[in-house]
Amino acid sequence: MTKVLLYLFFLCLSLGGRSQDFLENSKDYNRNRTIGVTSFHTLTWGGSIAGLQYVWYADYDKSPFHFFDDSQQWNQMDKLGHFYTAYQIGRLSGDLYNWAGVDRKKSTWIGTGFSFAYLSTVEILDGFNSNWGFSWSDVGANALGAGSYFAQNYGDNTPYVHFKFSSAPSDLAQYRPGVLGSDFASRTLKDYNGQTYWASFNPVYWFKKDSKIPKWLQVSVGYSTQDQLIGDGGTYVYNGGDEQITFTPYRQYFLSLDIDFESIPTSSRLLQVMFRVLNVIKMPFPALEYGNGQFKFRPLYF
């Protein structure tokens, strides 16, 4: 989930321009913008990898390059994290090159390639870490995420499905703070019990462009895990003095509503950019949950 932080960092930098003209996509190829965007990609790639190497990975023992099969861990929540991050990085990268006046189809190829190559670099670093290893399932999730961006953007540039993320604090991190996080920021990234990944879409609009149901109103299906305190999915027993609690993980599925901000009509380029940023997050709505063999209604689910 460190990649999510990097993506948010990308987003902040991409909003650096304040004027309407600056935010508008260049109608023709703009050499200066292209140089700036390419430099940004290069510096971000090199700087973040160096930061991971000397800040994050420095705390763990090194090992010869090796593979690690983690495809069955964390009820695949980490794989959805890879998918989501690859999709969003690809989309942002492609948007920046399109802003610089690069043809949309070419910018889509660049965004897809950058996303997959960047995250593959992170996987190579994992391969030299004794705690993890190079994961083919992570690479597969990265490829699917980047490929989903390509498939929706290369053709008619219509994202029929928006992949989103939401998070709310869970009370489980207190039992394993070293693994699930010890403060709000680390828990948001590490505690899969508080995370949900979503796919939001308007199925009516797929088939009927003039539907009276507004395009911005979407159905959203979500996935999460609960009572997951160890990666392999086994039962975890917490012993706290006189207290003993058993946690057995299970999957959660959600059905909710959502807002596609990018489908809200506006002539303001600033609002269009802001809506694009907001669209990476699932809006709070009532939700129907199924998990552990039973249905629950959540009046407001984050």
Widest β-sheet, arrangement of strands: 1-2-3-6-7-8
- Provide mean pLDDT, rounded: 89
Shape: globular
State the order of secondary-structure elements, H for helix, E for strand: HHHHHHEHHEHEEEEHEE
**Main structural class:** alpha+beta
Low-pLDDT parts are 1-18
Kindly give the count of domains.
2
Biggest sheet features? 6 strands, antiparallel
Helix content: 40-55%
The radius of gyration over CA amounts to 20 Å
Distance between the termini: 18 Å
Number of contiguous helices: 10
Q: Can you count the beta strands?
A: 8
Give the topology.
Elements: H1 2-14, H2 20-23, H3 31-56, H4 77-99, H5 104-127, H6 136-154, E1 161-167, H7 177-180, H8 184-190, E2 195-201, H9 203-207, E3 217-226, E4 236-240, E5 243-247, E6 250-259, H10 269-278, E7 285-291, E8 294-301
Helix pairs in contact: 1-4, 3-4, 3-5, 4-5, 4-6, 5-6
Give me some keywords for this one.
302 residues; alpha+beta; 2 domains; two-stranded antiparallel sheet; 10 helices; 45% helix; 20% strand; globular; disordered N terminus
What does this structure look like?
The chain is α+β, with helices and mostly antiparallel strands. It folds into 2 domains: 1-158, no CATH class; 159-302, no CATH class. It contains 10 helices and 8 strands. The chain has helices at residues 2-14, 20-23, 31-56, 77-99, 104-127, 136-154, 177-180, 184-190, 203-207, 269-278; strands spanning 161-167, 195-201, 217-226, 236-240, 243-247, 250-259, 285-291, 294-301. It has a 6-stranded antiparallel sheet. Strands 4-5 form a two-stranded antiparallel ribbon. Strand 7 (285-291) and strand 8 form a beta hairpin. Helix 1 (2-14) packs parallel to helix 4 (77-99), helix 4 (77-99) crosses helix 5 (104-127) and helix 5 packs antiparallel against helix 6 (136-154). The longest helix has 26 residues, at 31-56. The two termini are 18 Å apart. 31% of the residues are buried.
